[in-house]
Write a structure and sequence with these properties.
alpha/beta, TIM Barrel, Elongation Factor Tu (Ef-tu), domain 3, globular
Length: about 750
């Protein structure tokens, strides 16, 4: 059985060192652009080269995230950046944008590609298309269970997140940040809207909850389930955390490394209470084994807080203007970080005992006294959020070594020979002619001792073979010089090792249909009245979310919108379908009339081409395409521009109504009886719609660029997409007529 890969994150070089030294098989990092953690420190070009050399020296693979959607005017810059990575022997790219992936596969055929979880990888149809495209690995949705992963049949490497932060939305399916905050989650700039407070509204009435952070998930931790994950045949275990500290990266890597190795050795391992507490001290929002192991509702969510909660430290017994007195339920050290139950926190710079004497640490059961430098007036409990002793211990890691073996041949009248091997590379060097000893001969033991003096290097010898004549003399200085020379060559060989040959090909030119066939309007409807009105208005394409309603009115211009999460177990044939995810397009375009929806995050022409080549007749651009980027996208009647409607901000496997009102009953049907909304701190109201046990959260307002329609039409864009929510007949008339009137009044010069 091939051993599973342990893949660790690094947001800077310190974290990279920590990941490598604590046992990572591979590390993933990002550059200053095109990575889905734009606010990590990330790596400059020169740092990237050093990172590659450092990882390769230790036999660790290095992956680079290029996993954002890429606008048309960024394609050339992105390709230049990728070529730099390719030539400097990065082992793989983690990518989201299908158009950019296609270009890389064509231009740099030996560059290994991993499909980011941002591509919403969750079914065999999608995976089989990625494999056909030349993608080697897919990072699967965090919403998938271990049973669903085991049921996948596509022969492609599978990577899963095993530890770290969870998104409440399916990755790559969240537009919350882009629509509310002006920073795109698909561009690595997420504002963390899911970590903000919300109220749950039922039929205009606020539901009482035991916390305000209704969309905030717990932290993923699968350390107790490593054996099950290994037995599943997953290729790579991924730790989330490019925004985390080097101590977090180091300890989490070290802990999973130990448990993985123990399972392979003994088919068994144990996780201590102290190890779990250490995880919690480093970062947690409470721990969950996630959807991987069929957790739902309150087992996934922590709606009481969205912050790091650490571990329980003790109870407050007294507060005055100068001091805070704590009855300890855990040890407390000077420079620890603590947080009170009113969310105020501080670093314990000075620590006193009950006698008001300064100490550097106090044990569980004692009373600790700290300065009230934050003006605390009242609190009942306190938690430890930084453990300075743990941080110190984590940073005292044992340096990782590269095992080598030596061979030395020393025969009179022949050149001294020294050879070193790391199991892959073999380096040889020759010394001077070996002579008979005139006085004290050089012993085999002395030769071995000098060859194995590897202090100050990354190498460790596990075997040295010596073949030699008796009564010979070799200068010790020469042995030392040959050893240094041969190890320098091996170090360089490892640092500049490559998993691929650099082959660069020309990209073939490609064209899209730019023939203008007149005005085209596509409308998504949510009820029968809206559908009938759109039929009367002779809308070109009508998209229906209810399958029964679609079947009732089925015509050539009426389409059923498929689910955004599907295992592709439904076989449609001879249907009109608006498909919402990549696997569905690959499966259904073979026997159906298929258009693709805006959820595929299309922002460049190459991705339009890929979807059309795959079988989509029409492609809807993402609402993230702005006016500046529209100018570089070909004007085509099979490309729709989203101009009006409530954008689906996110989709989630988590149902707040089920957890909060129905207390985790998996048979919840509340959503079909009542109207539910989320309300934020600014009183914005976000409608909640459920479909096929998936929760869709809509925007609080309509995305509306109808006032710019005439400019778009004059610029050659004549295909427009509308999404309806609760619009009336009068609203539909107003919206459609505004577009048609603008088209009639267009500039025909």
């Amino acid at each position: 059985m091939k051993k599973v890969e342990l893949l660790s994150p690094a947001g800077n070089f310190e974290c990279l060192i920590s990941a490598v030294q604590n046992g990572a098989d591979a590390v993933y990092i990002g550059g200053k652009k095109f990575g889905a953690r734009a606010f990590a420190n990330n790596f400059e070009y020169d740092e990237m080269i050093e990172a590659i050399k450092y990882c390769h020296l230790y036999g660790v693979r290095l992956f680079v995230t290029v996993n954002t959607i890429c606008y048309e005017n960024e394609i050339e810059e992105a390709l230049n950046y990728i070529e730099f990575l390719y030539k400097n022997h990065v082992d793989a790219l983690i990518m989201q944008d299908l158009g950019l992936i296609s270009l890389v596969r064509e231009k740099y055929p030996n560059m290994e590609i991993h499909a980011s979880t941002q591509m919403h990888n969750h079914n065999d149809s999608g995976l089989s298309y990625l494999k056909e495209l030349g993608v080697k690995r897919a990072v699967l949705d965090r919403e998938m269970s271990i049973d669903e992963i085991n049921a996948l049949s596509t022969d492609i490497e599978k990577e899963v997140f095993i530890h770290g932060a969870l998104c409440v939305s399916y990755s790559g399916c969240c537009l919350f940040s882009a629509m509310h905050g002006g920073r795109s989650g698909n561009r690595g700039e997420c504002v963390g809207a899911c970590r903000l407070p919300y109220k749950l509204i039922e039929n205009n009435k606020e539901i009482q909850t035991n916390g305000d952070y209704i969309l905030s998930t717990k932290s993923l931790c699968t350390i107790n389930n490593i054996g099950k994950l290994i037995d599943s045949g997953i290729t790579s275990f991924k730790i989330e955390g490019r925004m985390k500290s080097k101590e977090y990266v180091g300890y989490i890597t070290r802990l999973y490394r130990e448990k993985i190795d123990n399972y392979y050795l003994y088919k068994n391992y144990s996780v201590s209470e102290e190890e779990i507490n250490n995880i919690k001290k480093l970062y947690n929002r409470e721990l969950t084994s996630g959807y991987l192991f069929n957790n739902y509702g309150s087992s996934i969510m922590n709606i009481k807080t969205s912050n790091h909660i650490g571990v329980n430290l003790g109870k407050i017994i007294k507060i005055d203007n100068k001091k805070i007195y704590i009855k300890l339920e855990d040890d407390l050290y000077q420079e620890d970080g603590i947080r009170f139950d009113n969310d105020k926190g501080m670093i314990v710079n000075k620590l006193y005992n009950e006698k008001d004497l300064l100490v550097n640490h106090l044990e569980k059961g004692q009373v600790a006294v700290v300065d009230n430098k934050i003006g605390l007036l009242s609190a009942k409990e306190v938690r430890k959020t930084i453990d300075s002793k743990l941080v110190f211990e984590i940073n005292r890691f044992k340096e990782r070594k590269v095992l080598v073996s030596f061979k030395c041949r020393a025969f009179v009248g022949k050149n001294l020979e020294l050879e070193v091997s790391d199991g892959i590379n073999v380096i040889n060097t020759l010394g001077s002619i070996v002579e008979n000893a005139k006085n004290s001969p050089t012993s085999k033991e002395r030769i071995k001792e000098q060859i194995e003096k590897l202090g100050g290097t990354v190498f460790y010898s596990n075997n040295t073979e010596i073949e030699m004549d008796d009564n010979i003399f070799i200068p010790i200085k020469e042995l030392n010089e040959l050893r240094r020379e041969i190890l320098d060559k091996l170090k360089e060989k490892r640092e500049y090792s490559s998993s691929h040959d650099v082959v660069i090909k020309n990209v073939k030119s490609y064209k899209l249909d730019t023939n203008n066939k007149g005005l085209i309007i596509s409308v998504l409807v949510r009820n029968e009245d809206q559908l009938k009105e759109c039929i009367d208005k002779k809308i070109n394409y009508i998209y229906v979310t209810d399958y029964d309603l679609y079947k009732k009115y089925k015509k050539s211009n009426i389409y059923y919108r498929t689910s955004r999460v599907t295992r592709n177990n439904i076989d449609y044939k001879d249907e009109n379908l608006l498909v919402t995810e990549l696997g569905g397009i690959n499966k259904y375009s073979k026997s159906n009339n298929v258009n693709s929806d805006y959820y595929l995050n299309v922002v460049n022409t190459r991705m339009v081409k890929e979807l059309i080549d795959l079988g989509a007749k029409r492609v809807t651009l993402s609402p993230e395409v702005n006016v500046n980027n529209l100018n570089s996208i070909p004007k085509s009647n099979n490309i729709d521009l989203f101009v009006y409607g409530r954008v689906e901000l996110m989709i989630t496997k988590y149902c707040p109504m089920n957890m909060i009102i129905n207390k985790n009953d998996k048979k919840c049907n509340l959503c079909y009886k009542n109207n539910y909304y989320l309300k934020d701190s600014n009183n914005n109201i976000y409608p909640i719609i459920t479909n096929n046990h998936i929760v869709h959260i809509l925007d609080s307002n309509n995305y509306d660029i109808l006032n710019n329609i005439k400019d778009y039409i004059n610029n050659g864009i004549c295909s427009f997409r509308i999404d309806l929510y609760n619009e009336t007949k009068e609203d539909i008339n107003r919206i459609v007529n505004s577009i048609r009137n603008s088209y009639e009044q267009r500039d025909n010069r």
